[in-house]
Amino acid sequence: MGRLNRYILKNAALSIGGLVIFACCVLLLERLLRIFEIVTVSSDPGVDASRMVVNLLPYYLGIAVPIALLLGTIITVDKLSKSSELTAALGAGVSLFHMTKPFILISIFLAGITMFVEGYLQPIGRYQYRATEYKVRQTSATAALREGTFTTVGSRTFFAGTEGSDGATGPIFIHEEVDQNSDGSGGGTGYRITTANIGKISVIDNSPVLNLAESRGFYVIDGTMSGQLSVQETAITGVVEVKKYQARGDDEREMTSGELFANRKGNVTQVIDKNTNNATLHLRLSKAALLLILPFIAVPFGLNYGRNPSSAGIFVGIVFLVSLQKALEFGQSLGAAGKIPPWLGIWGIIFAVSIFAAIIFWKSAYKMGQPPLTAFSQWVGYIKGEILSGIQSILRRKQATPHV
Predict the structure, then answer these.
(1) Where exactly are the transmembrane stretches of this chain (predicted)?
(2) Which of 187, 223, 263, 355 is positioned for an S-S bond with 268, CB 3.0–4.6 A?
(3) Whole domain around residue 68: which residue ranges?
(4) Is 391 a domain residue?
(5) Torsion region of 47: left, alpha or beta (phi above 0 gives left; psi -120 to 50 gives alpha)
(6) Where does a domain end: 175, 203, 237?
(7) φ/ψ bin of 93: left (φ > 0), alpha (ψ from -120 to 50), beta (otherwise)
(8) Other Cβ atoms closer than 10 A to 305
(9) CA distances from 112 to 62, 117, 126, 302, 343 (A)
(10) Is 92 helix (H, G, I), strand (E, B) or coil?
């Protein structure tokens, strides 16, 4: 690799790497508020929140990489154009394809990373995120004793006072719906009230138990209070209903690419439809293939030869990538529904994008005409000029109109 390509590779790697980190941080900020809301009932919120954030990273990395590759390439080429370095290199006989090689190398590296992230880390991370969220919501035994909060679990409603340093909470108020007389023989409908000065959670045989000290209780059946009882110590089981999260593999998005490939004929698991299985597999592979095509689109989008500096490439690139992502998702949905072959809805779009990339790059590299987005920039500039001219003419007419 020559000195020019090493220079381009360094600038491109810095731009793309910085955009990947920036995009991941921005995308995570949106989910952090929800994570904090979930872990407020956790007995170990710091660990659970960290685990959920780590498991989300592969998902957001899959979104950030194509955006960063496209925008990073456009920004790098645009800088070379505005500084006239691109013009000097072309004048020295260096072809545009030769200067695109560093971006191709980066795209190959990112395609390999994407296949691993999309095929393994993302489905495992998705499952672990859901399992952690489920565990926090279902097995957080202290959720029933959150300080100053009413919490309903089944037919019981709990309220707890201040939590002490030993983990005990008090005072405790418990409201429970019942369907029995005060003597327990049945026939009446009402509720039972239990209060205690101290309450503490313990786990016995994987079942959370609420231990109460200095407690009192009574029934209210058909509006009549009876059955008052005062005890020094008592215990209530079933504070929360503990259930295990579903096994991984009930959702195609939680299956690795190897598992999807093994199930492409639908003979490994009957839970996931064969078309859904194959459409998901083709979508993951297409995301890696798309990265190999993006440099041949991004480089022409970043060209301006220093004569008409413009940032239209960034705007058009974002619109193009978002539209392409939605088109791939639509193709996947058609394939999963069985309306078309699962591969056709995905690879048909990739083939069309490849043709578009070949045409636009060939015209930019070998025709040496105006950059592809020059016409777009001129059109935007024309509209902007017309708007400004209209505003100025209106202001002049107002100034020329005599005041009565």
Answers:
(1) 12-29, 59-77, 103-121, 288-305, 340-362
(2) 263
(3) 3-138+257-385
(4) no
(5) alpha
(6) 237
(7) left
(8) 16
(9) 12, 9, 20, 25, 21
(10) coil
Query: Could you tell me the two tokens for 185?
Result: 């023989």
Indicate if the pLDDT at residue 130 is higher than 80: yes
- Please, which residues have CB within 8 angstroms of residue 268's CB and are 6 or more apart in sequence? 259, 262
List, in order, residues 6 or more apart from 397 with CB less than 8 Å away.
none
Gap between the Cα atoms of 250 and 262, Å rounded: 15
Other beta carbons within 10 angstroms of residue 30's beta carbon come to: 9
Residue 277's SS3 state is helix
Q: Give all strands (DSSP E) within 222-372, no chain letters.
A: 224-237
State which of 78-87, 133-142, 232-241, 287-296 shows the largest mean pLDDT. Answer: 287-296
Residues 115 and 14 in one domain: yes
pLDDT in tens, 356-400: 999 999 888 887 666 666 655 555 555 656 676 767 677 667 666
CA-closest candidate to residue 286, choices 339, 317, 330: 330
Please tell me whether residue 338 adopts helix, strand or coil conformation: coil
| Number of domains forming the structure of the chain | 2
Verify that 68 and 177 share a domain, yes or no.
Answer: no
Domain boundary among 207, 237, 267: 237
Q: How far is CA 24 from CA 19, 195, 210, 325, 363, in A?
A: 8, 49, 42, 18, 34
- Dist CA 229 CA 220 (whole Å): 13
> What is the model's pTM?
0.71
